[in-house]
Amino acid sequence: MFSFVLPSRNKRTYKRRQKMHFCYTIWFFILFPLSDAETQHACQKFCFCKDGTMFVNCSGVSTTSNLIFPPETEHLDLSNSNLHSVPTKGLVYLWKLQILLLSGNYIYRIEERAFISLERLQKLDICRNKISFLGNSFSVGLISLQELILAYNRLQELHYKSFQHFENLQNLNLKNNNISSIETGTFRSLTHLRKLCLQNNHLHTLHNGVFSMLKHLEVLNLEGNAIKTIASGAFTSLSSLTILNLVQNKIEHIRFQTLLSLQTPETHILLSNNPWFCDCDLQRVFAKLHSVRRLILDDYHNVTCMEPHILRSLPLASVDTHLCVAETVTVLVITFTVLVTVVAAIAMAEKNRKKRTGKHWSDDNEVTYDAHNWASNNYESSAL
Question: Where are the beta strands (DSSP E) in 191-266?
Answer without folding.
Answer: 195-197, 205-206, 219-221, 229-230, 243-245
